[in-house]
Amino acid sequence: MTIKTAYFGFEVSDMDAWERYGELLGVGVERSAEGLFFRVDEKARRVHCIEGAADDIAWFGWEVDSIEELEQRRNHIKGQGINVEEGSVAEAQLRGVDQFFHFVDLNGTRFEIAHNLSEAGEFNSDKVEGGFVTGDLGVGHAAFNSNGHLADEKFMREVMSADLSDYIYQPMPDGSMMHASFLHTNPRHHSAAYAEGLGDVSVNKLNHFHLEVNTLSDFGTTYERLQEAGVVIAVSLGQHSNDKNLTFYAQTPSKFMFELGYGGITIDDEASWKPVIHDRISLWGHEFKQ
Ligand SMILES: [Fe+2]
Predict the structure, then answer these.
(1) Fold adopted by 135-285
(2) Per the CB 3.0–4.6 Å rule, which of 22, 54, 175, 261 could disulfide with 11?
(3) For residue 33, how far is its CA from the centre of ligand 1 (angstroms)?
(4) What residues pack around ion ligand 1 (CB closer than 5 A)?
């Protein structure tokens, strides 16, 4: 049983800025009375922007492959003493899913587990011609600010049945330490990460969301296109020590960052995977600009 990241829901104060941001990223952009929605593959709605003051994550969606697994997950999570609620028909329509249930993590981030994402036909982008890495790996990952990465890791393992990928314990530019747990629920190296000492949970729960492209040329041209448009590159080009993803981080119109990746590794054999502690976040690059 694997579970995949399915969609990101953001509460944003500047919908126009997010619409322009989507155009720059090269995702499919749909704006309606319901909100602003991005496509990155054949699924109808992978990013949902709803107008509001938080400028933070509003919900983090996960997908299961069958109605039976939805039921099993619901029972398992309830069995962990977590309060689970059903999504309404209107909420399911907005997300483009058949049905979902939701609960919150230790930081108050709403997690949603959904079944049957609506299809919207073949995805074509004139900016990201090779498309985004999705499928069995899900849509990307979310990295959260944390008050206690080991408690958040325990939650992910017990409630979401995630496995530990590894840790990164790294000194920050101001001399403090970042402690982060990386967790996987499918072959993508991590679908969620919780970092302590990186940002203040009371200010924004989400540190960044991540998408990955299939080709190096799409990665490079997106990097260039964002900079030419004046988007702030908050963390420069670099390669992560743990998942070997070549990435950069761009500021979004909200309080969190967007990370674009290329060439990340997968964890294909759980039995032989050994979690380690990396003492730095990157093999090279990733200079913090802010
Ligand atoms: Fe990341």
Answers:
(1) 2,3-Dihydroxybiphenyl 1,2-Dioxygenase; domain 1 (3.10.180)
(2) 54
(3) 31
(4) 143, 210, 259
